[in-house]
Target: Histone deacetylase family protein
Amino acid sequence: ALVVRSADCLLHVPTAEIWVGVRTPGTELPERATRIEAELVARGHEVRDAAAHDDDVLLRVHDPRLVEHLRTVYDRWVAAGFPEEPGQDRVVPYLMPTAGMLDGLPEREPTAVHAAAGRWCYDTMTLVGPGTWTAARAAVDVTLTAVDAVVGGTPLAYALVRPPGHHVTRSAYGGSCYLNNAGIAAQALRDAGHERVAVVDLDAHHGNGTQALFYDRADVLYASLHVDPGAGWFPHYAGFADETGRGDGVGANLNIPLAPGTADAAWLDAVSRLVEKVEASGATALVVSLGVDSAAADPESPLDVSVEAHRAAGDRLATLGLPTLAVQEGGYHLESIGELVAATLAGLGN
Ligand code: SP5
Ligand code: ZN
Model:
């Protein structure tokens, strides 16, 4: 695979995430990317730096106000005098204006930055620091550079991005994600002339953001396997099997929730069902949301999938014979993240 990367993706350094009110160490760390890159370099993959791209696709996938918020909120936060404690210089929402709170009131933009912090974010785990915007925007450049390669005839490109993206909807970020790289890739492939694009999401968590971006559309299929949100797992409110699309998008969304403890055989059966769905859709290009947090050793999911099964998943997806762009999502076990990604790409490259 052609590997596309950017040093700027390392500038987002989440020192913490706040979960159930407790400040815990960050998990979506820069070392994830350096580990993956080292492994892929060792295996002889060609590595290319991202080229700058304009905001065109980004602003059609996301609400421009979300993009502007992410671009400016850290500086506004600091200018407003937050925070006072050293080492805690991170934007954290304190109030999220839920649909139930607003209850039909006219839409208003809050004056205070500490209120704006919750206007575009739906959890307390996804903090914004000094390098967050630069890294998230660099991930978009990496993704679009990889799209260019695929459109230019490269059969398999891999966007080595962080922060990840599949939890971001049109106007709300969360789940350690800020901008939806895979969604931007799918839209860019559509714009390049692919009439139908499939997104297959292998991350252990449901990609609620990507699903939401394309839920009403027939031209982008979203198909995902993930730990059952009904068993108490993030993102809790999306990822159920009865979510099959809406309006023009009916039938263009497939969720396969898996019980905690699901291991290779059942996981690969689910991969095959995703492959069949893509085949039936008539898609001419494939985006793989390549999270590797289903691995047995991963601290963030209860799935129990081996390195060999990741290779086999790549093999099965490769039988589609489609131009393919793999985009990095989650995966938090630093000791094995490199070999998990390398194994999946080895399968995809067959
Ligand atoms: C891209 C991706 O894989 N996002 C995953 C976000 C889900 N995170 C849920 C975290 C739930 C609690 N984790 C506690 C970890 C304490 N450090
Ligand atoms: Zn995940």
The pocket of SP5 (ligand 1) is lined by residues 17, 19, 24-25, 27, 125, 164, 167, 175-177, 203, 205, 234, 291, 293, 300, 329-330 (CB under 6 Å).
